[in-house]
Amino acid sequence: MSINDSKESSRIGISGKLALAVCAIVTVLLVSSIIAIFELRRMSDFVSERISDNIEQINQSTELAVVTDEYNLRILSIVGNADSIVVSGLDPSPYISVADSLVNVISKARLSGCDSLRAAYDEYKKVSFRLDSIIVSDFVDSRDWYFTELQPKYNAFKTAQDLLNIGIQDDLQANSGSFDESFYRSITPIMVSVAVAILLSILLLFFILEYYVRPLRRMLKGTDAFVHYSHPYSVDFEGNDQLKELNGCIKDIAEENILLKRRIRERER
């Protein structure tokens, strides 16, 4: 194999160049789309889990409020009838066990206000456990105990719970904002890839117009001048692809045609 043959086999033709350009555009779009989908899915799963946790915390806080309200109302009812009872007969374990488990779960979230809620709940629970001893006591008025000792602890617990709910809602809002931010951040690769693809498409269009359409127009103009006005075909341009070969073939044909016409005229003489 000669050096020229080796060069011929190694050079890229028109179809190869166009295929490479299209492949470059498709590759950019494909890679950026995969990155965007992966990023969106990852952030969506993370933020969705956080939002789901916030909603679960709100539900747990609401359930805690319901259980504690019911327990507190039972105590108030017993205190209101304390003159006719020796002991309350109230078994706090069903309420306290549920409330304890809810407080423990909520505290694991480590949100702002969790420690205050636990402290306020423990104080309220400790004071409420004195109910039976207060009722049987001859020295302490049960109603006075409820409104001066237990009710303030209950109010402190409710205040701590309200503050915790505000913290949960703030965290939920922040997570929702993070979801929006992650969405826009995940589509950024797509936007960038689209911009790059548009730029590559413009460059490809310029490449086609400059290196293929323009030479073809020059070749057409040169052949038209040669055929209709007998002007010599002198079109030439840079390149090493099929267009260059085609232009060379047209030039050879034009020169052979001129030689052939000369021979015919010489014979006619």
Topology as a string of helices (H) and strands (E): HHHHHHH
Oligomer: single chain
Radius of gyration: 44 Å
Helix content: over 70%
Spans of at least 5 consecutive residues with low confidence: 1-9
CA distance, first residue to last residue: 47 Å
Shape estimate? rod-shaped
What count of helical segments does DSSP give? 7
Q: Structural class given helices, strands, pairing?
A: mainly alpha
Question: Sheet with the most strands?
Answer: none
Give me the count of strands.
Answer: 0
Mean pLDDT, to the nearest integer, reads: 78
Strand content: under 5%
What report would you give on this structure?
With 269 residues, the protein is mainly α. It is built from seven helices and no strands. The protein has helices at 3-10, 14-80, 93-107, 114-128, 131-136, 142-229, 242-268. The chain is rod-shaped, with a radius of gyration of 44 Å. The two termini are 47 Å apart.
